[in-house]
Design brief:
The protein has helices spanning 36-42, 137-143, 156-169, 190-200, and strands at 3-9, 48-54, 75-78, 81-84, 110-114, 146-154, 173-182, 204-206. With 218 residues, it is an alpha/beta fold. The strands form two sheets. Strands 5-2-1-6-7-8 form a six-stranded parallel beta sheet. Strands 3-4 form a two-stranded antiparallel sheet. The longest helix has 14 residues, at 156-169. The chain has four helices and eight strands; from the N terminus they run βαββββαβαβαβ. Helix 1 (36-42) links the parallel strand 1 (3-9) and strand 2 (48-54). The chain binds pyrazine-2-carboxylic acid and zinc ion.
Length: 218
């Protein structure tokens, strides 16, 4: 029997708005906290739960602060790749890089940290943005007989999308739980375009109520 993994993408303080337990993150995704209870219950239904953490050095070149005269949201070319400039976020070992306080982290089996190389951004859990370097996640999943990869978390239009597209390219069956994701929406249509791109790549984008009945119920 092939096994099912859930990849929980970037549920970190810097990607979520304020709650009574934490201040607003530097790159807060609108309604980013709303998905936490659903993700907590989804994690119970999987053979394997992997969580990613965006994990940048303080001088990461995706930060607008590293490019004098440039502003957050501007797009530049970095090492031949298109790069959106972000506020400083998810700096290694800082509170902003920690998982959100309400995430039930004891349910996580394996953590993948990405974006550690100053010179290249890394949205996907599998590769950096140029696909020059792989994390070991594909091998890790295959060694555990994972055929089906479910994706949830932040943000639909960046790291969720990149993770889902790479998982398809790597040959996994991919399911995106859309109500367990939220988008940045720098452009208001970014979320819809991301869903379209994931569907075109063969990912099934579904609501949590439509998950296959082969997953154990909670
Ligand atoms: C992300 C922007 C910059 C994400 C990470 O998690 O979607 N977005 N770094
Ligand atoms: Zn980042």
């Amino acid at each position: 029997m092939s096994a099912n993994a859930l990849i929980v993408v970037d549920m970190q303080n810097d990607f979520t708005p304020a709650t009574d337990r934490k201040p607003a993150g530097a790159l807060a995704v609108p309604q980013g906290n709303d998905v936490v209870p659903l993700i907590n219950s989804l994690m119970d239904r999987f053979d394997l739960v992997v969580a990613t953490q965006d994990w940048h050095p303080p001088d990461h070149l995706s930060f607008a602060s590293q490019h004098p005269g440039r502003k957050v949201g501007e797009v530049i070319e970095l090492d031949g790749l298109t790069q959106v400039l972000w506020p400083d976020h998810c700096v290694q070992e800082t509170p902003g890089a920690a998982f959100v306080p309400d995430l039930e982290t004891h349910k996580i089996d394996h953590v993948v940290r990405k974006g550690t190389d100053r010179h290249i951004d890394s949205y996907s859990a599998f590769f950096d943005n140029g696909r020059r370097k792989a994390t070991n996640l594909a091998r890790f999943l295959r060694e555990r007989d994972i055929a089906n990869v479910y994706v949830a978390g932040l943000a639909t239009d960046y790291c969720v999308k990149a993770t889902a597209l790479d998982a398809r390219r790597l040959g996994f069956n991919v399911y995106v739980v859309r109500d367990a994701c939220r988008a940045v929406n720098l452009k208001p249509t970014d979320e819809e375009e991301a869903i379209q791109a994931m569907r075109e790549a063969g990912a099934k984008v579904m609501h949590s109520s439509e998950l296959p009945s082969t997953l154990p119920a909670v």
